[in-house]
Design brief:
Layout lengths: L3 H26 L23 H31 L7 H26 L4 H29 L12 H24 L22 H29 L1 H30 L4 H31 L5
Helix pairs in contact: 1-2, 1-4, 1-8, 2-3, 3-4, 4-5, 4-8, 5-6, 5-8, 6-7, 7-8
Length: 307
């Protein structure tokens, strides 16, 4: 059913989407969004622009996004052509591939709009969230290809109590990610100096950059508590949710790692080179966390017990 070539295509699309996501964060962190002026898809009116660091970063991001669009479209077309006659198992991979294609197009159009008509930070923060959903879709497609390779679909049943908990946690995690993206787009990262205290205070004055960073820290802590509760609940009902215990443990480990990467981000804020690295690391970890959470969400719905 699933060929090695298609599996390689899905993996390439997933890696490409990760590069698109991190490239977008790099554009933001280096203030390269205007590196090509107001032109799109050209850069300063040229197909190959004059060399500057900003134009190189911005134009490279565009090229990678365009190539990724072709990969995602190829994956979608393969799924459609392969399963249009034999619809067994058709809906799940088509949903992943279709979602990846849809959100890739949306995030590309949002990027183009941001170049031609500069957008506000709240809108630009949504751009990162759209890219995150696009990546999660490609990751789910990759996971599906490997599960399809390994034989019959999973047969264990998941208690119905798990799905609403995962759904609530997933939505909340998206809010936390949005807050982080908003901080990045408003250059508010220096609002809280020091960690875990904020400017030497347990609870600082909640306004401006300080308020944004402090709220994000509290939100991240609550997300960790939520994921710990989700893991414990899944393990408690392990007879039905054993297949979800390991990915739930991974999400818990990743959110703890994410919190400490946030501390590292604060520690390196005065060093621009290290801050760029820690910022990308922070984005990389949360991308993996969200992708795994989406896998748990999908399986907790698809394999839920009947009433």
């Amino acid at each position: 059913m699933v060929t090695g070539r298609f599996r390689a295509l899905a993996v390439a699309a997933c890696i490409g989407m990760l590069l698109v996501l991190l490239g977008g964060a790099l554009v933001t962190n280096t203030d390269s969004g205007r590196g090509c002026g107001d032109d799109w898809p050209l850069c300063h009116g040229k197909f190959i622009p004059a060399y500057t660091i900003e134009s190189l970063i911005e134009y490279s991001h565009r090229l990678i996004t365009g190539f990724e669009g072709l990969l995602v479209f190829a994956a979608f077309l393969f799924i459609f052509m392969r399963f249009r006659k034999n619809r067994t198992g058709f809906k799940e991979p088509l949903f992943y591939a279709g979602g990846a294609l849809l959100f890739t197009v949306i995030q590309a159009l949002m990027g183009a709009a941001a170049v031609m008509w500069p957008q506000s930070p709240p809108i630009m923060a949504i751009h990162f969230g759209i890219s995150l959903i696009a990546f999660a879709s490609t990751l789910l497609l990759v996971i599906w290809t490997f599960r399809a390779k390994n034989g019959p679909p999973e047969v264990f049943k998941v208690p119905r109590s798990i799905f609403p908990r995962v759904l609530a946690t997933a939505i909340y995690s998206y809010v936390v990610v949005y807050l982080g993206a908003f901080i990045r787009h408003t250059d508010s990262g220096g609002g809280c100096l020091g960690w875990p205290l904020c400017n030497g205070e347990f609870v600082p004055e909640i306004n401006g950059a300080t308020g944004a960073v402090f709220i994000h820290r509290v939100a991240a802590l609550l997300l960790a508590i939520s994921l710990a509760g989700l893991f414990l609940h899944i393990r408690k009902v392990s007879q039905g949710g054993a297949g979800l215990t390991k990915p739930a443990a991974w999400t818990l480990g990743l959110v703890v790692t994410q919190i400490f990467s946030g501390a590292l981000l604060t520690a390196t804020i005065s060093n621009s080179e290290w801050f760029l690295f820690t910022n990308l690391l922070h984005n990389l970890i949360v991308t993996g966390l969200f992708g795994l959470l989406m896998d748990i969400l999908v399986r907790s719905w698809r394999l839920r017990e009947e009433r």
